[in-house]
Amino acid sequence: MLAVMAEKVWLWRSPPGWPEPPPGWYPPLGWVPPLEWPLPPPNWQWWTQELPKLVVENSGPPTRRNLAWETTFVMIGFLYVGVISAVTLVTRHALGGGSPNPIPNLVPGHLAANLVFATLSYLSVASVVPIALLLLARTGQRPAILGLGLPGWSSDIWPCIGLIAATFGASFLLAIPFTSLVRNHPGLLNPVEVGHVSHYYVIYLVVLSLTTAVAEEVLVNGYLLTRLDQLGWKPWPALILSLILRTSYHVYYGLGFIFTIPFGYFMTRSFQKNRRLTRPILAHFVWDAALFTIAVLSAK
């Protein structure tokens, strides 16, 4: 851990016409200038104080307390907006305000401009990612150690297909006992509805999917699980906390938030077992992008 301190520095000044001394030099005891040097001006100030100098000292690795506070602040920074938005949407649905739409109407009446500004606006979801990666790198967990990099066939792409298949199968099985309940009480679900938009809005939804995949997996998987491991957490409690936090900003689905649990489980366990962050990012991106693309292209 780095500590920064201010240190007062005093420098000896040469009068006008005298040569400048070497850095850090000061007159030794009994020193007199050569006779050929000009006399200093009356009341000349021989010493001057330099502006405070920053001294950086390495005070060792961060303490457990500091890591705990850091983790808390980073996760609050990531979760706050998402959780508040999710609670707002589910409250709106409960009060008859309709289902959420992932495509905001920021520039009404101008589809192309709305596409551009909606895309730029959504990128803020991943604003905490560089901070989290920098903090991890400062404690030795650089992106390569987290398994971040270009996806490989055997290391990421084929396992990604397996993760998607496992998620689909588990979600299908989980849906069976809830079918009759949802049929009798459709208001329990709050499905995301894309509505009828131009097909080129697939561009926005692909960017949304990629941004979401990177933000969620880096923070809820890579950052959080790494820090919990450093704080002495066992894998299963860490998995449960990760699932709770991941689910918290999906409550706008209503009862449908239950179907995000298998997805979160497989993504989290994948990182815990393999330490390959690219793998769940890729799976998350493909899953979301496929669902959104189908929704846009099939909208009437």
Walk me through what this model shows.
- The protein has helices spanning 64-94, 111-122, 129-138, 153-175, 179-184, 202-230, 235-248, 260-274, 278-298, and strands at residues 2-12, 47-58.
- It has a two-stranded antiparallel ribbon.
- The chain folds into 2 domains: 2-58, no CATH class; 64-298, no CATH class.
- Helix 4 runs antiparallel to helix 8 (260-274), helix 6 (202-230) runs antiparallel to helix 7 and helix 8 runs antiparallel to helix 9.
- It is elongated, with a radius of gyration of 29 Å.
- The protein has 300 residues and is mainly α.
- The two termini are 57 Å apart.
Q: What are the SSEs and their pairings?
A:
Elements: E1 2-12, E2 47-58, H1 64-94, H2 111-122, H3 129-138, H4 153-175, H5 179-184, H6 202-230, H7 235-248, H8 260-274, H9 278-298
Antiparallel strand pairs: 1-2
Helix pairs in contact: 1-6, 2-6, 3-6, 4-8, 4-9, 6-7, 6-8, 6-9, 7-8, 8-9
Secondary-structure class: mainly alpha
Q: In sequence order, what are the helices and strands, one letter per element?
A: EEHHHHHHHHH
Helix fraction bin: 40-55%
Shape: elongated
- Straight-line N-to-C gap: 57 Å
User: What are the low-pLDDT stretches, counting only 5+ consecutive residues below 50?
Assistant: none
C-alpha Rg (nearest Å):
29 Å
Strand content: 5-15%
Number of contiguous helices = 9
The beta-strand count equals 2
The whole-number mean of residue pLDDT values reads 84
Largest sheet: 2 strands, antiparallel
Number of domains: 2
Strand order of the largest sheet: 1-2
